[in-house]
């Protein structure tokens, strides 16, 4: 009973391996013969039967040459697949690198924008302070942030000359 179970498991494993091998070889044959794609099931199965019904090498030179050509073509397709995989991975790497560089540029631009905003704020504060002094008031104004009319703004305020203006 135990031997029978082992033989059955062995036969199942052998069937799985044979089925997998047939699928791999069939896929490779389809790659070598793109014209078979039109009617895959009928044409490919007929050509695959020739491979699976192979009864060994004959001494004929043409069969040996055909086998060598088949193996070389399969090798070429394997290397082509490997090359495509390498290219795909390189493209993924370059896309990630581009994304990283784009993020770095964006961050740098934000820093430049902040610098620009700081320069504008500095200039605007200088302008309103000079305007205040040009009105003849020598008192030091105060600057404050206030929310008025649902708007947050920076104001200049002087209690001596009753100045109250929006800076930004």
UniProtKB/TrEMBL annotation:
Keywords: Hydrolase, Metal-binding, Zinc, Zinc-finger. GO terms for molecular function: hydrolase activity; zinc ion binding. The keyword Zinc-finger applies. GO terms for cellular component: nucleus. Residues 19-105 form the RPA-interacting protein central domain. Residues 111-166 form the RPA-interacting protein C-terminal domain. The keyword ATP-binding does not apply. GO terms for biological process: protein import into nucleus. It comes from the Eukaryota. This is Alpha/beta hydrolase fold. The lineage of its organism: Eukaryota, Viridiplantae, Streptophyta, Embryophyta, Tracheophyta.
């Amino acid at each position: 009973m135990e031997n029978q179970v082992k033989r059955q498991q062995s036969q199942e494993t052998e069937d799985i391996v044979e089925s997998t091998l047939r699928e791999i070889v069939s896929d490779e044959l389809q790659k070598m013969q793109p014209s078979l794609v039109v009617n895959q099931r009928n044409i490919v199965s007929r050509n695959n039967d020739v491979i699976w019904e192979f009864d060994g090498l004959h001494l004929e030179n043409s069969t040996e040459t055909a086998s060598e050509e088949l193996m070389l073509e399969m090798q070429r397709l394997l290397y082509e697949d490997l090359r495509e995989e390498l290219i795909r991975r390189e493209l993924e790497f370059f896309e990630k690198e581009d994304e990283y560089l784009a993020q770095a540029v964006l961050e740098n631009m934000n820093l430049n924008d902040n610098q620009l905003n700081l320069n504008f704020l500095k200039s605007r504060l200088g302008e309103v302070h000079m305007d205040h002094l040009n009105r003849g008031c020598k008192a030091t104004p105060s600057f404050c942030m206030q929310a008025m009319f649902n708007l947050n703004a920076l104001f200049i305020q002087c209690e001596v000359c009753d100045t109250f203006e929006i800076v930004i």
